[in-house]
């Protein structure tokens, strides 16, 4: 099976073109590219310097850097008009997008528009194929496109998006505590996950014959940690993804998730993350405590057996060095010999689990 795995984060887009005919992942094509949000943020900044208004259409993509750039564009006294799909990039509540000073319109630019038009496309397989053709690596025979993006989901009014994100994961894992419960086939993406749906539609638009699966970036990274040879044999694992925006940890016993905790990376220091992880594994910290600390929250599906019983602490993510300053015996996961491929290896494993 040939799998194109795309792990699209806030800083980078990690690409793995996995082909099981090549026997091992080390022989497969791998790339680390700037994340789409970074690319579009640079384009917005260029428009700001030119004092040009913006019309933005296309897909729902990750916000982050591009949302910040759009805010600065508006603060400079310039106009931003977006189609509805593209506007969900900024916030999952379109009223909040309008309150930020962005006009939302139909698929057409305003009649009197004379500025710069951008087309958001997070999964750009056509551009990727053009590049890979020079290396005799076609995408036309790809069996599966597997995409990981972070998606908070469209949350009901009155409910925090942080609470909603954790609650949706809990609901899925209560039905099935295996991590593959967080993986969606192309026709099964819940309606609230607009960015995941956009990734599916973009993939099918460009490679209509390929099957598509999607999942969140943090669970993809955690699944990749579990594929590290030093971790794979452990029955009790604490897997941690210290990302640019979020830090997620999952407590796993006998291949089933016992609990998940998620916080904002920028609010953590070495002492705090150590206390958080130990208390989480011991069952000594509550969802409300994490939420009040401006984290997302946590849930436990059953009583954990305690931090002292953990056989392996596996960590990944661009800010994993935060853990080097703790007393925790951390193993930095590098499945396939490459820490930057942790999420994509997780996507390959997810594909094998639900489609093989």
Keywords:
356 residues; alpha/beta; Nucleotidyltransferase, domain 5; 2 domains; six-stranded mixed beta sheet; 12 helices; 16 strands; globular
Whole-angstrom Rg: 20 Å
Content of β-strand: 15-25%
What are the low-pLDDT stretches, counting only 5+ consecutive residues below 50? none
Average of per-residue pLDDT values: 95
**How many strands?**
16
Give the helix proportion (percent range).
25-40%
In short:
It contains 12 helices and 16 strands. The chain has about 350 residues and is α/β, with parallel strands linked by helices.
Describe the protein in words.
The structure is a single chain. The model has no long low-confidence stretch (mean pLDDT 95). The chain is built from twelve helices and 16 strands. 33% of the residues lie in helices and 24% in strands. It has 356 residues and is of the alpha/beta class. 45% of the residues are buried. The radius of gyration is 20 Å and the shape is globular. The chain has a six-stranded mixed beta sheet with strand order 3-2-1-8-10-9, with helices on both faces. It has a six-stranded mixed beta sheet with strand order 14-13-12-11-15-16, sandwiched between helices. It has a four-stranded parallel beta sheet with strand order 6-5-4-7. The protein folds into two domains: 1-152 and 182-216; 229-333, ATPase, nucleotide binding domain (Nucleotidyltransferase, domain 5). Strand 4, helix 2 (65-75) and strand 5 form a beta-alpha-beta unit.
């Amino acid at each position: 099976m040939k799998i194109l795995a795309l792990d699209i984060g806030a800083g980078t887009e990690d690409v793995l073109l996995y082909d099981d005919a090549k026997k091992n992942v080390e022989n497969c094509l791998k790339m680390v590219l700037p994340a789409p949000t970074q690319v579009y943020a640079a384009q917005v900044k260029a428009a700001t310097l030119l004092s040009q208004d913006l019309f933005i259409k296309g897909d729902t993509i990750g916000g982050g850097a591009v949302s910040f750039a759009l805010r600065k564009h508006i603060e400079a006294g310039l106009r931003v008009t977006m189609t509805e799909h593209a506007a969900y990039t900024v916030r999952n509540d379109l009223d909040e997008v309008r309150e930020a000073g962005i006009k939302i319109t139909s698929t057409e630019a305003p009649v009197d528009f004379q500025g710069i038009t951008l087309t958001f496309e997070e999964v750009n397989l056509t551009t990727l194929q053009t590049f890979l053709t020079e290396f005799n690596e076609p995408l036309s025979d790809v069996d599966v496109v597997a995409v990981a993006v972070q998606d908070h989901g469209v949350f009901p009014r009155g409910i925090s998006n942080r609470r909603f994100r954790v609650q949706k994961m809990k609901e899925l894992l209560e039905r099935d505590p295996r991590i593959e419960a967080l993986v969606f086939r192309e026709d099964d993406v819940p309606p609230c996950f607009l960015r995941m749906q956009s990734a599916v539609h973009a993939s099918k638009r460009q490679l209509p014959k390929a099957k598509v699966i999607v999942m969140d970036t943090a669970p993809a990274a955690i699944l990749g940690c579990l594929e590290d040879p030093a971790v794979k044999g452990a029955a009790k694992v604490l897997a941690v993804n210290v990302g640019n925006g979020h830090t997620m940890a999952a407590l796993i016993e006998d291949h089933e998730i016992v609990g998940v905790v998620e916080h904002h990376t920028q609010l953590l220091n070495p002492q705090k993350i150590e206390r958080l992880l130990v208390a989480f594994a011991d069952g000594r910290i509550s969802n409300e405590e994490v939420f009040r600390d401006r984290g997302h929250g946590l849930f436990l599906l059953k009583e954990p057996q305690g931090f002292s019983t953990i056989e392996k602490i596996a960590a990944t993510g661009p800010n994993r060095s935060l853990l080097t300053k703790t007393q925790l015996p951390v193993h930095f996961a590098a499945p396939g010999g490459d820490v930057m491929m942790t999420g994509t290896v997780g996507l390959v494993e997810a594909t094998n689990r639900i489609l093989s």
